[in-house]
Design goal:
By secondary structure, the protein is of the alpha/beta class. It contains eleven helices and 13 strands.
Length: 315
């Protein structure tokens, strides 16, 4: 039973009124830099219809992302461009933003995210939660960027209910977006409900997992893909958009880039079957990172899962 494709992709209205396409292109290439590859990927994506691009200072490819956009001939007003503040720059938000803006050279940034809540100093040490600059202090500096007119919206990435409970009592401007790892093995339902209640939109990074992702061979996802006559990747992205989140998958293949824009709506039975996958043994987990350890506990960039507020298994 081939599924009927959505006639158009949803446009998300953020809490400040900005409009963001529900499907974007993630520009993390799997390793730092890879600028030429990234530039060609963005050029191809623009050609096949992408208008939402997600990069970061930490990816080290802002220059190439921006050049592909500038040289595409697509009006800047039709592009939604996101970049992110690096962990090492929480003490110099304005300078870091200006550096990203110069690298991109695309007039302005649509969305600027705090990439991670923790700051790392010049030695790579992650500051403790109460050491300055805290993520609350960093957010207050990000709020000031809106006065420049060079960034339209601000948000965060990798925030949890725990870190939001610390941040939100101190904000003048509520983040428009929280970008997190999100897929059927890690649906983040509690976080989705929490963010929805606060008017914060969730964007899924790694919505397909990473290379050799177990999501592509999951029995439920394969069965539904066959039923609707679509790829497993289309199942994963369609599910993400159907639950009201946006998705920023990455692909360098033109055929895959095209298919990732062709989404379907599932019937309630199939939608709920995907929602329930994470309840199966061993399937509520991260599949996007190779985690390190902090003080003998699983962690990321110097903070433990507990400090980050992440409550799921790891590999």
């Amino acid at each position: 039973m081939p599924g009927e494709l959505l006639s158009s992709l949803p446009i998300i209205t953020l809490n400040d009124g900005s409009k963001m396409p529900a499907v974007g292109l993630g520009c993390w290439m799997g390793s730092y830099g890879e600028g030429e590859r990234c530039e060609q990927m963005v050029r191809t994506a623009l050609k096949v219809g992408y208008r939402h691009f997600d990069t970061a200072a930490g990816y080290q490819n802002e220059k190439h992302t921006g050049r592909a956009i500038r040289e595409s001939g697509v009006p800047r007003s039709e592009i939604f461009l996101t970049t992110k503040l690096a962990n090492t720059d929480h003490h110099r938000v304005r300078e870091a933003f200006e550096a990203s803006l110069a690298q991109l050279d695309c007039e302005y940034v649509d969305l600027y995210l705090m990439h991670w809540p923790q700051h790392q100093d010049e030695t790579g040490r992650a500051l403790k939660e109460d050491e300055s600059p805290t993520f609350v202090e960093t957010w207050k500096e990000m709020e000031k960027l809106l006065e420049t007119g060079k960034v339209k919206s601000i948000g965060v990435s990798n925030f949890s209910v725990k870190t939001f409970d610390v941040l939100l009592p101190h904000v003048k401007i509520v983040p428009v977006v929280n970008q997190v790892q999100l897929h059927p093995y890690l649906p983040q339902t509690e976080l989705l409900d929490y963010c929805t209640s606060k008017g914060i939109h969730l964007t899924a990074y790694s919505p397909l997992g990473q290379t050799n992702s177990p999501l592509f061979t999951d029995d439920t996802i394969v069965r539904i893909a066959e039923k609707y006559g679509i790829s497993t990747g289309q199942v994963l992205l369609s599910w993400g958009v159907q639950r009201g989140t946006s998705v920023v998958p990455k692909s360098e293949k033109e055929e895959r880039l095209r298919s990732n824009l062709k989404l379907v709506k599932f019937d309630s039975e199939d939608f709920e079957a995907i929602n329930a996958i994470h309840k199966q043994p061993g399937k509520n987990k991260n599949v996007a990172f190779h985690m390190g350890y902090v003080d003998g506990k699983p962690g990321m960039f110097g903070w433990t899962y507990e400090q980050l507020g992440w409550e799921y298994d790891y590999e």
